[in-house]
Every structure is written in C-alpha cells, then in structure tokens.
Amino acid sequence: MFHLGLVPGRAWGALLCQLLRPPRTVCVRAVGCHGQVAEAVLTSQLKPHQEKPNFIIKVPKGTRDLSPQQMVVREKILDKIISCFKRHGAKGLDTPAFELKEMLTEKYEENLRLMYDLKDQGGELLSLRYDLTVPFARYLAMNKLKKMKRYQVGKVWRRESPTIAQGRYREFCQCDFDIAGQYDPMIPDAECLKIMCEILSGLQLGDFLIKVNDRRIVDGMYAVCGVPESKFRAICASMDKLDKMSWKDVRHEMVVKKGLAPEVADRIGDYVQCHGGISLVEQMFQDPRLSQSKLAVEGLADLKLLFEYLTLFGIAEKISFDLSLARGLDYYTGVIFEAVLLQLPAQAGDEPLNVGSVAAGGRYDELVSQFDPKGHTVPCVGLSIGVERIFYIVEQKMKTSGEKVRTTETQVFVATAQKNFLQERLKLIAQLWDAGIKAEMLYKNNPKLLTQLHYCENMGIPLVIIIGEQEQNEGVIKLRSVASREEVTVKRENLITEIQKRLSES
C-alpha cells in the first residue's frame, strides 16, 4: 500500500500540484507550487459561472435603453421644457434617487404596493422616490424655506404594470415646476396652467385640453352624496381611474371592492359626467346638493377666480372644469389639473394613439408641514410633465414623417488627401477645439479621402477642412461645404474666423 510518509517533501509538492491541476491546463513546475495550486483551484471554481448557455441579456421589465437617435430627440424635448421653466423664474434643484422609507410611506397610502423598497443599507430603510414632489417638500422643511420657485428633472420609479405602447414604464423621467410660499389666491395656480399650455404648444403635439377641478369640491361632492369620510381617499383613488376605465367599471370597483353603497355611487355618477367652463362653475354654485357643502363652495369660489386669471392669460379656452378629475395622490388639498391630447398622431389606417395624460399637477398646502418638526405650513402648487409619454408621441410622429435624426453636433471634420499628415491634422483639430468648435477626425494614420467625405455625409457634418502637401507649403487650408461640395482656399491664420462666420450664417 502506498505510504504518504515515505514521499520526500519536494516530490510530495509536485504530486499535489498534479492532483489539483484542472483538466487541459499546461504543466507547471513544482517550484512555487503553492501559488499555482491556489490559481488552479480558483480557475476550477470560476469556470462553471463563466458558462451560461441559457443566460438572456435584457433590461429589467418596465425599463429601456435609449439609443443615440432617441437621446437627441429626448434632449430637445427636455431643453424646451427647461427653457420654459427658466423663463418663469424657476431655480434648478436635485434630490437623492432614494429617500428614507418612513418619509414616503405615509404620503402614498393608496400606492404603497407601487413603491420600490431597498434592503437595509447601513441601518437605514430606504425606498426609491415615487415622484419629485415629496422630496421637494422634505427639502423645504429640512432647510426651513418659506418661499421657492423651483424646477427639477429626474427619474422616478413605480412598480406598476408597464404599457410600452403607451409610453408607461416602471422607471421614467419627470419634469416638475413648483411654487412654494404664501401668496394671494390662484395667481401661482394660474401661472402653472399657463406654463403647461406654453410647453404643450411649443412641443407641437397637437390640440390639447387641460382638465381642472378642486379636491375640496371632490370631498364636498363625496360628503353630500353620502360617502363615509373614512372612504374618501379610497373612492378618490378609484375615481382617478376614469381616464383609463369606463364609469361602469369604476362604479363596480367602488361598490364591490371598496364597499360603497350602490345609490351613493350613482349620485357620484351624476356629477362625474359634468364638464365645461366658467358657466359650469356658476351652475354648481346653484346645485341643491353641492351648494350645501362649505368645502365645495370654497373650491368653486377659487375656480371662479382662477378662470378670470386664465382669461387674462389668454388660455381659458384650453381649460375645462371637469368633475370627474380626482388625482389619486393623498397630498393634494386644492386645485388639481391634468392635460390630455385631444387627437394623437397615428399611422395611416390605425386608431389614434392613446397615452393618457401628458401633464398634471395641483395644490398641496399641507405636505411641507408633515415634515416640519413644528408643523409650519408652506403652501405649494406645482405641475409635472410626462416626458416618456410625450417622447413616445414625438417618436411616432417622426416615424410617420420619415424624419432623420443627427446623433452628433460635429460642425467641422478635419481631413487629408495624402499620407503622413496625422500630425498636421492633430494640430488643426486641437486649434478648432480650443476655439470652441465641435470637430472630429478619423483615428487612422492614412485614411482615404473618399472614406472621410462619406463619413461627413452620413453624419450630417456641414464643413470639412482638407490639408495636404500643397496647402501646407502655401500656408492655406481648403474649406469644403459637404452639402454643396464647393471648396474655397483660406489662409491658415484666418481659418477659425471663416469657420465661425459660416457657422453663424447657417
């Protein structure tokens, strides 16, 4: 029988290396065997994880990548939105992607199941932000701010069923504008609606309508119709689905799932079918049931004043008083609004696209006080633009029209027709970059001129500068227009001035 004790130390080390070596590896010497044994063991452990024949590369459900073409379109949309916010005097703000869970859970009672919770992180329970409004209220309270007009652009996360064909995702971008502070009634609210009109008109999405209501009117309507106060928020969440479901289905949810008496649901049904302008506001003042609610009368009085300001802003025809509008989030306290497109672009023969609301908002006067240790109130009103849905609509319009998107902003391409001119091209492109001109070149020592010109045409680059032996000897540069293919000779010291002149004229 083989006795291990009789094997010399060096021979034993070599034998151990042979035994532990994985299949199909090259032989190694016995010298330095300990490190080689460890490497062999590590390799054998990693190998099973490297082979994943059933692994599918994909993005998580409800998310997506954005291609360079899509990013160009998206950035143009965001630029228009942000420029409008700045035109109205807003300051930029950013907040963390996640907040303390306790900061969020009390603010979204009907939507807790849609929140993304994170595991315990160093003793803190966290959740990804559900919107940008609650973080803004937390920021105001934490910094003891009483007034602020701010905008914020950022991603939010909701664990709902995604509908990609309607621009609905679990991870999406919001663009928010909010006015915080104590001001005379309805002036900030009217400006928010004006901003919403400016953005939707500027994006040229088609005709749109902004529905307005007031949470005091909604709560007053529930009270006079016989809804128990304990069910107000639950019934409000059901009513908020009227843009996606018929009244019949919403009524079924109220009665069967929320336990509302059928006759009470029918009374609500009489109101939710009403929509109009200032005349409907006057009519509701005279309504025998609604006029008995002090809360509803306060809301109607503010809406009457709001319509006066909207008329002065020249946008009253874009606004509709709609009693079916509820806005399900718990923190709204006054005026609420939501923008919908009336006719969306569609492919020939297809039904018009339906993506739901493209912007929404309202007044939330009590949210900041919930974060303030002393309960100090900071009235707020704001709006949020649904970028993903707008982006989806713009994409469909571009597909229909066949419009091409330029993915870079390169203004000048540095080219050569001869070999051994890499150093000169590098000098020229550095000169362009230093002058603030967007420039490119091919990363090859001796590229063919035709290849370089084809690249410019494919990428939509407007100008090409060409350097060769003759130009170098004469101290000039050829400047070529890609579109017209016309060439002019420019003195090297005048090149930057000539390019800037042409770019300013284009």
TrEMBL record:
PANTHER family with a match to the protein in the record: HISTIDINE--TRNA LIGASE, MITOCHONDRIAL, HISTIDYL-TRNA SYNTHETASE
Sample GO molecular function, one term: histidine-tRNA ligase activity
Keywords: Aminoacyl-tRNA synthetase, ATP-binding, Ligase, Nucleotide-binding, Protein biosynthesis
Keyword Cell wall biogenesis/degradation carried by entry: no
Name assigned to this protein: histidine--tRNA ligase
Organism encoding this protein: Jaculus jaculus (Lesser Egyptian jerboa)
Biological process, per Gene Ontology: histidyl-tRNA aminoacylation
GO CC terms of this entry: cytosol; mitochondrion
Domain Aminoacyl-transfer RNA synthetases class-II family profile, first and last residues per copy: 62-394
Family, per entry: Belongs to the class-II aminoacyl-tRNA synthetase family.
UniProt EC number: 6.1.1.21
Reaction catalysis annotation: tRNA(His) + L-histidine + ATP = L-histidyl-tRNA(His) + AMP + diphosphate + H(+)
Pfam families linked: HGTP_anticodon, tRNA-synt_His
NCBIfam families documented for this protein: hisS
Entry keyword annotation includes Ligase: yes
Binding site for L-histidine: D131, L132, T133, R158, Q174, D178, R327, Y331, Y332
InterPro entries, per database record: aa-tRNA-synth_II, aa-tRNA-synth_II/BPL/LPL, Anticodon-bd, Anticodon-bd_dom_sf, His-tRNA-ligase, HisRS-like_core, HisRS/HisZ, HisRS_anticodon
